[in-house]
């Protein structure tokens, strides 16, 4: 069985064709292009040139876009979006506002407006207070004024919120109020600690638009190369908090 691996870096895009029995069949390096798609296409084209049989023999493809990490390291405003935070916390956690644990060099690029609103859960799963529709709508109005394209919704003890689903409710309100905005619920990204979970969600949200562009570019290149693989893997750590 043949496997194709693509690694999109900030400078180069690498592609490797691997035979699971015989080992590496071919490996190429091509420059990463601004539109991403072209660089991926050239890299895939380069390794498939060494394939003497049909592309249907490629049974699995993996893409590992390390340039997401590079975008954070390089503080690239083209690849990163500012992020607005809607934290559902009621009267609690105001002493530790969003972005408080971020390095200043990242904070200056990523920090958007923060809103500490009604909501959140107690440790026993009961509500601190319900989500306030008017507060969320007011926050959305401010987010729209600032032209923010990424929003994180975080809630105190959200990972144990299986029934009330405050984050999901608030995220739905944001999606209805703001079009073409990426919304990330913190409970979908990490675990119980509020700041760690919120920080990981911020990093994911800041990169989400560029992630979508990269995945779309990969899919476009694969279609052009007539790669109809039964398995496609996008390899990226789910919790990006260790990048801080």
From TrEMBL:
One Pfam family linked to the record: Hydant_A_N
Any one GO MF annotation of this record: hydrolase activity
Start and end residues of each Hydantoinase/oxoprolinase N-terminal domain: 3-161
InterPro entries documented for this protein: ATPase_NBD, Hydant_A_N, Oxoprolinase-like
PANTHER family reported for this sequence: 5-OXOPROLINASE RELATED, HYDANTOINASE_OXOPROLINASE
Protein name (Swiss-Prot/TrEMBL): Hydantoinase/oxoprolinase N-terminal domain-containing protein
Organism: Scleroderma citrinum Foug A
């Amino acid at each position: 069985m043949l496997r194709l691996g693509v690694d999109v870096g900030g400078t180069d895009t690498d592609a490797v064709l691997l035979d699971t029995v015989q080992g590496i069949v071919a490996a190429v390096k091509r420059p990463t292009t601004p539109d991403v798609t072209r660089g991926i296409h050239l890299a895939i084209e380069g390794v498939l040139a060494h394939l003497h049989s049909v592309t249907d023999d490629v049974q699995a493809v993996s893409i590992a876009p390390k340039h997401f990490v590079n975008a954070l390291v390089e503080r690239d405003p083209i690849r990163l979006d500012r992020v607005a935070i809607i934290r559902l916390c009621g009267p609690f956690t105001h002493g530790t506002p969003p972005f408080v644990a971020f390095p200043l060099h990242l904070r200056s690029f990523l920090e958007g407006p923060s809103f500490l609103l009604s909501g959140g859960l107690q440790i026993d799963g009961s509500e601190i207070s319900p989500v306030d529709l008017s507060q969320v709508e007011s926050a959305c109005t401010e987010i729209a004024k600032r032209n923010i394209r990424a929003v994180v919704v975080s809630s105190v003890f959200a990972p144990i919120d299986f029934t009330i689903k405050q984050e999901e409710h608030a995220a739905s309100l944001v999606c209805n109020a703001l079009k073409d905005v990426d919304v990330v619920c913190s409970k979908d990204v990490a675990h119980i600690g509020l700041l760690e979970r919120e920080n990981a969600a911020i990093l994911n949200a800041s990169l989400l638009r560029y992630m979508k562009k990269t995945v779309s570019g990969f899919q476009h290149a694969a279609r052009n190369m007539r790669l109809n693989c039964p398995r496609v893997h996008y390899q990226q750590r789910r919790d990006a908090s260790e990048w801080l």
